[in-house]
Amino acid sequence: MLDMPSPNPNQPVIFVIVNVEVAIVRDGRYLVTERGSGESYGAGWLGFPGGKLEWGERDQDAIEATARREAEEETGVILGPEIAYVESHTFGTDAPCLDIVMLGRPAAHSPEAIIRDPEEVAALAWMTLAEIAADPRTQPWTLASLDRAEAVREQLGW
């Protein structure tokens, strides 16, 4: 870990985990996953494919690379060339986390979504905004991110 001076010598520097989620949209539906029983946080909740940025992933476009990797690792979906920023927020579980939400679409040559690791992803489905909002497994912060993703999607004309 880097030894960095604190801006305030009386407070330690706090390092955060960088998590990247990707809202994948196709024909007005979003690909949502149900977190698997092997997940230490939020098992059974609906969310987007995502995970931690891995050091050395890429120096340039590291967030986009993480979104692409996580989409493919969790669902088999290969993202198209355009990925757009949606929003970011922080939360804390075991450690402070910066969560960055991106928006993408499957590439024309992408295979259909599949569950690649049932411990990580219990189920997946293409759902409308209304279906996701009505599902009791959807957490308020996921719905807030989805609302923002939908606004970005509309701005982009997707």
Tags for this model:
158 residues; alpha+beta; Nucleoside Triphosphate Pyrophosphohydrolase; 3 helices; 23% helix; globular
Structure commentary:
The chain is of the alpha+beta class and 158 residues long. It has a single domain, classed as Nucleoside Triphosphate Pyrophosphohydrolase, CATH 3.90.79. It is 23% helix and 34% strand. The chain has helices at residues 62-75, 129-134, 140-156, and strands at 17-26, 29-35, 46-47, 50-52, 79-92, 96-106, 121-127. Strands 1, 2, 3, 4, 5, 6 and 7 form a 7-stranded mixed β-sheet that branches. Strand 1 and strand 2 form a beta hairpin. It is globular, with a radius of gyration of 16 Å.
CATH topology: Nucleoside Triphosphate Pyrophosphohydrolase
Number of strands: 7
- List the domain count as a whole number: 1
Our count of helices gives 3
**CATH homologous superfamily title:** Nucleoside Triphosphate Pyrophosphohydrolase
- Sketch the topology as an H/E string, one letter per element: EEEEHEEEHH
Which value, in Å, is the CA radius of gyration? 16 Å
Residue share in helices?
A: 10-25%
Distance between the termini: 41 Å
Mean pLDDT: 90
Structural class: alpha+beta
CATH class division: Alpha Beta
Query: Which percent range describes the beta-strand content?
Result: 25-35%
Walk me through the topology.
Elements: E1 17-26, E2 29-35, E3 46-47, E4 50-52, H1 62-75, E5 79-92, E6 96-106, E7 121-127, H2 129-134, H3 140-156
Parallel strand pairs: 1-6
Antiparallel strand pairs: 1-2, 1-4, 2-3, 2-7, 5-6
